[in-house]
Amino acid sequence: MPSDGAATQFARQVAAEAEPAARRALLQAHPELIDAAFMDALRDVAPDRAEDLVIEAMEVGRPQDVAAVHLVAALLQAWQEGRLDEAEKEHAADITADFVDTVLQTAEDAAHRHAATDTALILLKLARRLIRRFGFDDMMPHLHLCWSSLALLTDDDQTAETMVKAALADPRLDNQPLVRQALDINHGLVLLRQGRYDEAIAAHTALIGTLDDQVLRAAARSNLALAHAEKGEIGTALALLDDLERDCRRDGDHDHLVSVLGNKANLVGRLGLHDEEHHLREQTLDLASHPVGGKARDWQAVITSQANLALFHLRHGKPEQARRWIEMFRQSCERQGDHGQRVMQIRLEVELALVEGDAERAWSLGRDALDRLPDSVDPEYLALTGSVSRAARMSGRIDQSVDLFLRQLRLAEETGHRELAHAGLGHLGLSLHATGDRDGAHALFARMFAADSGLRHLVSGELTQFTLSSTREQMYAEVVKAVAEEDDAERLFHVVQGAKAFALGHAAPAMEGWQEFRATLEQGSILLEYYVHGPLAFCLVAATEFDQPVRVDLPVDQTRLEAAANVFRASLPWARWILRHDPFDGLDALGKALAEPLRPWLENRHTMVVCPSGAMSGIPFHLLPTGDGRRIIDHIAVTQAPSATVHAASRSRRAEGRKAVCLSVAAATDSPQSQTLFDQEARQVAALLSARGFEAISSPDIADWQGSAIVHLAAHGHFDPSDPRAGSLSMGAPVTLEVLARAQLDADLVFLSGCDTGRVHPLRGQEALGFMPILLGRGARSAILSFWPILARSSLTPAIATDFYRHWLVEGMPKASALRRAMLRWRDRPLYEWGGYGVFGCGQ
Fold first, then answer.
1. Helical axes 197-208 vs 177-193, angle rounded to 10°
2. How far apart are CA 476 and CA 392, in angstroms?
3. pLDDT digits (tens, 9 = 90+) for 548-557
4. CA 191 vs CA 112, 187, 198, 379: distances in Å
5. Cβ count near 627 (within 10 Å)
6. Which of 182, 619, 672, 832 has the fewest CB atoms inside 10 Å of its own CB, making it the most exposed?
7. What's the CA gap between 499 and 645, in Å, rounded?
8. Contact 426, 475 (CB under 8 A)
9. What's the pLDDT at 325?
């Protein structure tokens, strides 16, 4: 088979030859190069003369097809001129069942390979006339199959259903098993388009077991994955597509591989895995543009990939890149005569105008389109409705926005399209809020967060929950911004709970109101719920005696906060070596922005619960300067949690067992002094735990840790902010975040005494990924972790650990207070040596 490059090179040679005789001789000399890829290349290198050159090539390489091409052309021209009856009589001897079959195959190829849907429809109408005129009745089921496939491709679901039902009721179908099976697949796809997801899943599941044909089986498997995805079961859908991708690569089925990669890109994009999505999008486009085995370019996949790449850049606020892909998409549609992408074209233009801030143009483009289009449950139509509704709201047409969002929400809920229903609830709430109907808006916001929770329960994989939040970021930021304009801190508090750390918060029991929440706080403690996004920055202060939270606006914005946090993180490598000079100046700016405005609320408190936001995640709050020459730890004990909801959930947990894991694992490359200190820490902690009645075990097998009340590990930690999923503990074999995410560590305390165990990487959507959120998400009531690389050769490390346990278990101090006391014992030493631990979760 010639490569794509060989086909293009040969096409250039043929197109460059001006003399017809010499051109024919060149074609005759290389008949092995005349294939679909070569024909495609001719259309690229010589678009003005492409059709004539293709006919010349076919006369040499595929002479049997030329007669059919000429006959089709003659019949179509006669039809257009109103003399089809005469032409049919003239060519009656050539109009055979094989010829009609060629017409049907050409129609399929035009639609699915070349995206020429208008041409395909004309050919199907011609085939239908010929079947009826010449009595080829047995071909009618095949015609209905081709017509239903075209209707599905162009989102004409009603026609698709009509064609499928007509074919399945045809008794002649009994002798055409492959056509029946293909119609059954299209019937399942009709169910999917109608939003009947459970029926579609049942139909495809039953059908797959009956299919022997590899192509049909792959199509059914792909549709089954899509049905699970539309139902919101993204983890199941991805697993099915992974299996199908493996089989397609093994079998060399590149046609279905293109479809599989495109569908996977859609799903990982919904999960917020943006780098992986972009890679899959480009991979899909490349495979569709450069098919193997001499096949023609898959223009349908090319056009779809170009549209999806445009949407990808629009979602990420990159209009210039998006504009380039939109133009390529438009040119491809024009080239192939594909008018079945009208909804997508309008949606892309509307979204581009919104990203560029031109809401008036977006509204003008979208309003007329929706007026011309009938209601549909197709996801593209629903997405366009949402885009136009946003344009209405952003251009000040609030009443039209409410009507359109109601329309979108009704259609999405009727069909069970959970993702679009979730988005519709949020946008409709924002529109109602803009009308002044705040009660109605908050009811919709509550339904939106409940819908998000429901969707998350269908997503497999703990780590996926964190990236999923990035897809909600813009919506939730708009909701918080709108509610922040009200003078109602209680409502703002509840909205923030849905917008922050929802990867963990969605699984926590929902609290009905402020009274229920404040009952979870401890007397004498103060909770600080921070929120920073764009220019909006505030802290909600909560305590048991407050009638409602108190809002404190902060003198910072997202850009300045991120810059200050980066300065601190950059100082840590130096702090390890320049211990005597205490280079923590990077915390000064953070202290001024985050701690000093809240000093009055810290007086007469014994514990401060900090719920950070965005870039402040992973910052040691206990070390922030308070403006009086001291740090927070000098005033009060500190514990951290991703959100108030997560903190309340951790307080409600109880670990009743008396088993305790106590283990040290030094590296073979550690110095003898380091190995001694590792072992010393484990022995001292184990002795103290045993004295308090705990059964201390030292198994490195994480399966043995289940049911332990305490887990104390002295081991090397690894954290790479560029790849937080790769974070691990060295326990002989690495214990990664993936491993921890599959474990159930319902311990009262997990103490990871190693380097960087408390570091996290802030993600979009008010999430942070690292050991801390994974431990709290897997059932731990609290964790003590390190903010930076702990000094393996320092005797302070085992001393702080054993002092903590003595203060907590022997003296009965709360965990946060016990850790504070253990660290302050060394207050006169360099900060890096003693200040690196923090309590997360429940510190009381």
1. 160
2. 19
3. 999 999 999 9
4. 21, 6, 9, 13
5. 13
6. 672
7. 11
8. yes
9. 95
The pLDDT, as a whole number, for residue 370 is 84
Give the DSSP letter of residue 625: B
Which residue bears the tokens 């090539």?
Answer: 57
The pLDDT value given to residue 552: 97
Tokens representing residue 402 in the block:
């409410």
Please, are residues 354 and 390 in contact by the beta-carbon 8 Å criterion? yes
* Opening angle at CA 15, ends 9 and 17, nearest 5: 105
Output the DSSP codes for 656-691. ---EEEEEEE--TTS-HHHHHHHHHHHHHHHHHHHH
Percent pLDDT > 70 in the chain is 90
Q: What b/e sequence results for 184-223 when a residue is b if at least 16 CB atoms lie within 10 Å of its CB, and e otherwise? A: bbbbbbbbbbbbbbebbbebbeebbeebeeeebbbbbbbb
Q: Which of 119, 570, 183, 520 is nearest to 336 (CA)?
A: 119
pLDDT for position 561: 93
Query: 187, 203, 205: which is closest to 144 by C-alpha?
Result: 187
Residue among 189, 192, 224 nearest 206 (CA): 224
**Structure tokens belonging to residue 288:** 């569709």
pLDDT of residue 37: 65
Which among 54-63, 163-172, 754-763 has the top mean pLDDT? 163-172
For tokens 């159930």, what's the residue?
744
List the structure tokens of 194: 């109608």
Q: Who's near 57: CB < 8 A, 6+ residues apart?
A: 14, 27, 34, 38, 39, 42
Residue 697: pLDDT band (50, 70, 90) is: confident
Pairing of β 837-841 and β 637-640: parallel
Residues 537, 553: contact at Cβ < 8 Å? yes
DSSP state of 838: E
Give the pairing type, strands 733-736 and 728-731.
antiparallel
Query: What six digits make up the tokens of 357?
Result: 């801030």
HSE-CB for 498 with a 13 A CA cutoff: 27
The residue written with tokens 């903190």 in the block is 647
In whole angstroms, give the CA distance from residue 645 to residue 570: 31
CATH number of 650-841: 3.40.50
Contact between 140 and 131 (Cβ < 8 Å): yes
Residue type, 721: P
Residue 328 has pLDDT above 70, yes or no: yes
Residue type (1 letter), 271: L
Tell me which residue has tokens 């110095």: 671
The SS3 assignment for 272 reads coil
**Which H or E run contains 553?**
strand 550-553
Question: Residue 387 corresponds to which tokens in the numbers above?
Answer: 């885009």
pLDDT tens, 718-760?
887 777 777 788 877 778 887 888 888 889 999 999 888 888 8
Which residues lie closer than 8 Å to 766 by C-beta, 6 or more apart?
469, 473, 476, 499, 500, 501, 502, 531, 533, 613, 614
In angstroms, the CA 314 to CA 662 distance is 51
State which amino acid sits at residue 663: L
> Is the pLDDT reported for residue 236 higher than 90?
no
Per-residue confidence (pLDDT) for residue 833, from 0 to 100: 87
Topology given in CATH for the domain delimited by 343-460: 1.25.40
Q: Do 583 and 590 meet the contact criterion of CB atoms below 8 Å apart?
A: no
Model confidence, pTM: 0.75
Q: How many angstroms separate the CA atoms of 659 and 288, rounded?
A: 58
Round to whole Å and give the CA distance between 509 and 398.
35
pLDDT at 337 over 70: no
Residue 835: predicted pLDDT: 92
CB-count exposure of residue 47 (10 Å: 0-12, 13-18, 19+): exposed
Report which secondary-structure segment, H or E, holds 638: strand 637-640
Helical residues (DSSP H) of 500-653, grouped into ranges? 502-505, 514-518, 558-577, 586-590, 599-602, 632-635, 644-651
Nearest to 410 by CA among 421, 426, 397: 421
